[in-house]
Structure formats: structure tokens, C-alpha cells
# Entry
Amino acid sequence: MAYNGKLLAKAKQRLQSRRLEFEQAHDKRIQQVYDACPHIREIDDALKNTIIGVVGAALGDKVAIENTVSELRERNLALQEQRRRELVSAGFASDYLDDEYLCSRCHDTGYVGAQMCTCLKQLYNDELRASLSSLLKLGDETFETFNLSLYDDTPDPELGISPRSHMEVVCETCYRYAEKFGRASTNLYLNGAPGLGKTFLSAAIANVVANKGFSVVYDTAHAVFSAFEDDKFSKTGDQKTARGDVRRYLESDLLILDDLGTEMTTAFTISALYELINTRLMTNKKTIISSNLSTAELRGRYSAPIVSRIDGEYMSLRFYGRDIRLVKRGL
# Structure
């Protein structure tokens, strides 16, 4: 998974803050117990001494170590049992002080060996969803709130059915795509006139897929090609940022490339688009492209290898209807 460095840093900071809050709360619980039952402090000191004793025993001979460790283990278990009884007698639960870490798997470090722990992944996904919400200007963009009533229910001669019925199929297809997202998923090409819900359904897919723990990157075609250009030509500090962005565009589990066709088409942008599409296909990474261009219009704008890959490797979903922003305004 390709992680966004800035989002990962925020997730680690949140983990550290949560750990600090937990430690402070745990310290308060300990002091509360010591105030109510001073004898438990003595038991805790004795438990610490058994640990020190184990370390000291390691300096002796093998037989002495085994005997000493066995004795210390028995004493430790006896002290723990005594501690539990004292806690209950003082009116506390027997496990009132047991939780020393928020996450027992990684001990609040965020990593188990070299692998990121699920607790840090969850915090990262939270940051990712917040970032997507900002980029996509999300409000209530979910499949449940996709309002099909905004589409005309009158049969369309070109479709043979109403735009509403057609968009119901499109919405259901996007929903199933999000729910079953994985390595076996296809790529999507969402196309149609502006204001028909392409970004809305892209956002709904992004939310579901991110919630499943996959890395999701959203950006406009203009921003993507600008990053590719800065990565190749920039001589300033912007190159490092651009290189990180390009890496995420190429390696994220799901890339949502919005507004393809609104960028200035040059030999460089065509080359960058081919690299992006081809690399992600070769590495089995999934892409959703949204555009105002039909697949036929793509042929007049981009190179044959690009169009061939979109035709052959993407499921095309055509959006029909009137601009729903105008419908909402009663125009």
C-alpha cells in the first residue's frame, strides 16, 4: 500500500496523543488505588523487585538461574494474586489496573515488527477519509443519499428507457463495485455531461473502499499532470513533493482521476497519462476515470495506446440526464 506521508504523520501524531492521554488516565487510576489501599503500592514495589531479580539471576550459572527464575516466577504469581484480592477488597475490579496499553498487539508503537499495526492503519484511514472529504467537498455523498428522483423519469428515445432508470443501474453498478473492491476488480470510466453525479458516485465509492482499509487517492487530471511535470522538470524543493505525489498516483490501491479532458493536452500530458494508465494496469492497481468525454471523443484527443487500454480494460458507465444542479434550482 502506498501511504501519504503527510497523512501518515498525522495518524502517528494522533496515536501518540491518544497514548499520552491513556497514560495520564492510567496514572490517575494507580494513584486512586494507592490512596484507597496503600498496601497495593507495596505489592507493586515487590513485583518490580521480582523483575529486577530475574535480570540479576542471568549473571549466575545455568542451574542457579533456573532455580532462581522458578522461585521468582512463583513469587510473582503469588504477588499478582494478592494484588487482585486487595483491589477487590478496596472496591475495585480485579483487572482495574491491568490495561497498560491501548493496543496489546503493538504496545502503542503503531508497528508489529516491520508491519504497520491495525490501530495505526485505522487512524491513517480516518485521516484519508478526512482528506478525501476535503478534496471532494464531501457532505453526505453516500450511496444511500444518491437522489435518483433528480433524474427525469420520462423515457429517452436514445436510451429506450428513462434517465432515472438508467442511472439506477449505474448507481447499483458503482455500489457493487465498491462493496466487492479488490484485486479482481475492473477499472471504471465514468463519462457524461457535467453535473450528472460522476463526482458524487466517485466519492461514494472512495468512502466505502477507504473504509475497507485500501489506499485511495483522488485528484483532478490537471493536478496529476502538474505533479508529473514538476517531478520531471522542477529544480526546486517542489520536486520532492511532486515525486511523492506521483508515487501515490502510481501505487495507490484505487486512484480516482477526475475531469480528464479539462487539462491542456500536450505531448507531455499524453505521455504522462499513458504512463499512469499502463503502470497501474501492469501492477494490477485499480483506477476510476471521470470525464465529460465519451469513449468516441477520447479517440480524437488521446493516442491510440491510451484509448485502446481504456476501451479494453475499463468498464464504461455513461451518465445521462439534465444537470442536477440546475434541477435543484428549478431551472
